[in-house]
Design a protein that fits this description.
About 30% of the residues lie in helices and about 25% in strands. By secondary structure, the protein is α/β, with parallel strands linked by helices.
Length: about 525
């Protein structure tokens, strides 16, 4: 079995160098080209001082060059940190300071962001910049150590590699309740184990044409990319600007002749809302997978009635457990809109545990906290042993102290059918548009605004594209008149778009409960039952 993620590309290049590996618009790379260019980048990174365990950030939009960057970093024995180039500079700075990369790979799309980031003299002195763009870097603080042309002039052939399956492949930064993003460390071996299971279960092969819809800093993309390479298939990267164009997105699936689609359910619900899927549409599509949040049963029924030739599989798993830990392939179209879809059974090497507060199993049918054990567990959070110890616990059912379970923060029950059913979050962490979001991080940003006296952020389930609406109740500071639009504009400077509240309600004083804490349940009810202001 493969022991390092990048070996799949090298193996495919040796067997089928002229086979198409990835496509985005008019750009197309074969396995031979992908392998050679990522080798050259790896050698360039080594020449820039990268060694085993060094981190490399890439501030690149989803593109063939971003995929090359991932592979090149791995071939250099590095750990890649994908960073959303559309994120505000303060958030990117927190990630960069935490990750302490030796190199940042960027291009013109992130030029202004990078320039703002490198106004910090300490960062500028410690980080080299690789400019992977045909356009020259002309920003004040950006002095690239190497360019794309330097990469293309580098020797071919992979550098010597010392990493093993237990070494980190990447760090994915997720929302943190204190306002500081948390870095989840993911190893080569944990990705390989999931991909090998998925390849067998879904029957992936060279004839597959797989969607690449999620952004590369989102863990669903890990399966799209490396599942494709393990199978010797093609990945078709979906342009982000199609996300709000349902007709164009449906046409993309047809034109690319995709055999597999994988995304968050909110996007599938969005397409259903606009009724863009025809009966017996997408004739080449064989599998539709979703993960990241609950897929409303009415929208699932819409898809299943129109695509009887497609299998539909629900995958479940937090970032901390590597892509997914359980699966459920829906055997037939649910009979009504109220039918619950389970998260199902554990993937190979995984175990789902529904436990009470004493870490004892709860009887079938009773609600408990969901824990995960198995081969997909992350080593923990990057340089944060306290947060790691809080959720990665010693397995109470094993004598080996190295045997761990992960507390997901989700509530679940085991049904009479023996399958596991997800029942929601046990804390303030939510999923909106497939993104995992800590409401506390949004409140931290809001509380930093001098125009507000107090605020509370809650989530309300919706039937819309976002799946869960983020709602902000606020009290302006004395003598200050502030609109939701102005608040949203101020937040957009420090938070990415998926974390911006979509509903707002002004108060003279926020409601409290008996403990004088904000009455969040009352606020949720208010947002759910009243017309509220939506900021554009």
């Amino acid at each position: 079995m493969t022991s390092l993620l990048q070996q799949w590309v090298t193996d495919q290049a040796e067997r089928r160098p002229d086979a198409t590996a990835l496509v985005m618009g008019a750009e197309r790379l074969t396995y031979g080209q992908l392998d050679a260019l990522s080798d050259q980048l790896a050698r360039t990174l080594r020449a820039a001082g990268c060694g085993r365990g060094d981190r490399v950030c890439f501030l690149l939009p989803k593109s063939p060059l971003a995929i090359v960057s991932m592979l090149g970093i791995l071939k250099a024995d590095g750990i890649y940190i994908p960073v959303d180039p559309s994120s505000p500079a303060p958030r990117v700075a927190k990630i960069v300071r935490s990750g302490e990369p030796r190199v940042i790979l960027a291009g013109s799309r992130a030029a202004l962001l990078l320039d703002e980031l490198l106004t910090d003299e300490r960062l500028r002195a410690s980080i080299a910049v690789g400019w992977l763009d045909g356009e020259r870097a002309v920003q004040e603080h950006v002095a690239p150590a190497f360019s794309l042309e330097d990469v293309r002039r580098a020797p071919t052939g992979p550098p010597d590699c010392r990493n093993g399956p237990g070494d980190a492949a990447h760090i994915l930064f997720t929302s943190g309740s204190t306002g500081t993003p948390k870095g989840v460390v993911i190893t080569h071996g944990s990705v390989i184990r999931f991909v090998e299971w998925a390849k067998r279960y879904f029957g992936l092969g060279p004839a597959d044409r797989i969607s690449g819809h999620p952004p590369l800093h989102f863990d669903l993309s890990t399966f799209d990319v490396f599942g494709t390479f393990a199978a010797g298939a093609q990945i078709h990267l979906v342009p982000p600007d199609l996300n709000l164009l349902p007709t164009a997105l449906a046409q993309f699936i047809r034109a690319a002749e995709l055999t597999q689609w994988f995304s968050v359910p909110s996007l599938l619900s969005y397409l259903a809302k606009f009724d863009v899927v025809r009966f017996d549409d997408f004739p080449t599509l064989r599998r539709l997978l979703w993960c990241g949040e609950v897929f409303p049963t009415p929208a699932l029924r819409y898809w299943m009635t129109r695509l009887p030739h497609v299998t539909f599989t629900n995958l479940y798993g937090p970032t901390e457990t590597t892509i997914a830990s359980s699966y459920y392939t829906v055997p037939s179209c649910p009979e009504d809109d109220r039918g619950a879809i389970p998260i199902g059974s554990p993937c190979a090497g995984e175990e789902l545990l529904v436990l009470n507060e004493r870490l004892q199993p709860v009887p079938p049918g009773e609600v408990g906290d969901l824990y995960i054990r198995g081969v997909g567990l992350s080593p923990g959070y990057w340089r944060d042993p306290e947060k790691t110890r809080a959720v990665f616990l010693s397995n109470p059912f094993a004598s080996d102290p190295a045997d761990r379970i992960y507390r997901t923060g989700d509530l679940a029950r085991i049904g009479d059918d023996g399958l596991v059913y997800f029942l929601g979050r046990a804390d303030s962490q939510i999923k909106s548009r497939g993104y995992r979001i800590e409401l506390g991080e949004i409140e931290t940003a809001l509380n930093a605004l001098s125009c507000l006296r107090e605020c509370a952020v809650v989530a309300v389930s919706t039937d819309g594209f976002e799946g869960t609406a983020i709602c902000c109740a606020y009290v302006p500071s004395p003598g200050v008149a502030v609109t939701p639009g102005e608040l949203r504009h101020a937040l957009a400077k420090v938070l990415p778009a998926p974390m911006l509240p979509s509903r707002w309600m002004a108060y003279e004083r926020l409601p409290r409960n008996a403990n004088e804490k904000f009455d969040r349940r009352l606020l949720q009810e208010a947002f759910a039952s009243h017309e509220t202001v939506a900021a554009g």
